[in-house]
Design brief:
The protein is α/β, with parallel strands linked by helices. It is built from 14 helices and 17 strands.
């Protein structure tokens, strides 16, 4: 029986945001104090009893230029991860790129990122699990359609350009890693979205958005798009030869579909395009939609919550609810191989989607920023101990 993967991750977002005519790098590992507490944080993860740690060294600091790398932080972290016997899922690009690559509108990004991925695999050949680019849909949406991060653009054309280049980079990186480590597998962590129409006038828009949420995975998995989505791409700069690249290079056979789910992943959409977060269907229904589309093994790759008044009662309740959804999906035949509470440590400024540099502590971790375990951390540790040996992934060995 292959072990079911209980996981957590260390939040490592590093987009740039616009500030006074320039840019500001927002590095969550710096904000949470991780760089000075690497060994302590990794041992806290080990103490929980997890099998898998989502860990991403800072791409923007490591890849100093074409063929030039500064591996110091990655060496420290991955050597200790290996010593502790934790299986890592290497998260190679998490919402940002090095300054010299500028942003996700750069047509040179895919080739340079693939070079970096291959170099990473050569340096750490024992690593078998990867997320080449985290949440491709969110990366493109926030950077090129909402205007919040990186290129800070707000247009369909910019969104399609970012989606195309991110998808191409993801595929080329996967191919580069496989040349070095043929047994590698790719847990493609992606936000699981759903759009509910606010009234009859919003139905058509909700349908379009509910197709578009799949776009990055459709391209990387070689899924044959519906006509309206294909037309949307062509109208906004994608060429037929670009689309053929995705159909001919799909990486589906070596992928595990990672589904991230938060209460904010569901949206009520109004006819004028305004949206508001509103949880309605839950993890079971939405993940089943993604599974029915791609028929791939699934890993629950992110979730968290806290009570609005600052107490942790709701976090523990949310953990039980998400775990219950997962068990029901597994009982109903969906091949789920793992579950993740994200992240290990509290986060900073995610309440403003990282665009306000206020130092606002978001109490979403299994441990607080002083590295004291939270009630949800105790509950997750107990859940792991209770279920270990009674649930299997049925297909994946991580060592």
């Amino acid at each position: 029986m292959q072990a079911f993967l209980f996981a957590t991750g260390i939040e490592n977002s590093y987009p740039t945001i616009s500030r006074a005519g320039g840019t500001l790098r927002v590095d969550e590992m710096a904000k949470t104090g991780h760089y000075g507490r690497v060994a302590e944080d990794l041992r806290l993860a080990k103490d929980l009893g997890i099998d898998l740690l989502r860990y991403g060294p800072p791409y923007y600091l490591i890849h100093a230029g074409p063929g030039t790398y500064h591996w110091e932080h990655a060496d420290e972290a991955f050597n200790l991860i290996r010593e502790l016997g934790i299986a890592p899922c290497a998260d190679l690009c998490h919402f940002g790129v090095p300054d010299w690559l500028q942003n996700f509108q750069n047509p040179d990004f895919p080739a340079h990122f693939a070079e970096y991925a291959g170099a990473f695999a050569q340096r750490y050949p024992w690593v078998r699990l990867y997320t080449p680019i985290n949440e491709m849909y969110v990366t493109a949406h926030f950077s090129a359609q909402l205007g919040l991060w990186n290129e800070c653009l707000s247009s369909d054309r910019a969104f399609v350009t970012a989606t195309r280049l991110i998808g191409r980079a993801n595929i080329l990186a996967t191919e580069a890693i496989l040349k070095v480590q043929p047994s590698a597998r790719f847990i493609q962590s992606e936000s699981s979205e759903y759009f509910h129409p606010a009234d009859p006038d919003a139905v058509a828009l909700a349908r379009r958005l509910n197709e578009r949420r799949f776009l990055s995975l459709d391209l990387c998995y070689g899924y044959d798009l519906c006509a309206t989505t294909y037309e949307f791409l062509l109208e906004n700069g994608m060429r037929k030869e670009d689309f053929r690249f995705f159909m001919e290079h799909n990486i589906r056979p070596v992928c595990i579909m990672g589904n991230d789910y938060y209460a904010t992943n569901e949206h009520i959409v109004h006819p004028d395009g305004r949206t508001e977060a509103y949880e309605m269907l839950g993890y079971y229904v939405i993940t089943k939609q993604y599974y029915d589309r791609y028929r791939l093994p699934v890993m629950h790759t992110e979730t968290n919550n806290r009570d609005s008044n600052g107490s942790e009662k709701d976090a523990c309740s949310w953990l039980k609810r998400q775990w219950g959804n997962l068990v029901r999906l597994k009982e109903d035949g969906v091949p789920i191989i793992g579950f993740t509470w994200y992240s290990l440590i509290d986060q900073v400024d995610w309440d403003s989607l990282l665009v306000e540099d206020k130092g606002s502590v978001n109490e979403l971790g299994l441990y607080d920023l002083q590295r004291r375990i939270r009630p949800v951390g105790l509950a997750y540790r107990d859940l792991i101990q209770t279920w270990r040996g009674h649930i299997s992934n049925g297909m994946l060995s991580i060592y």
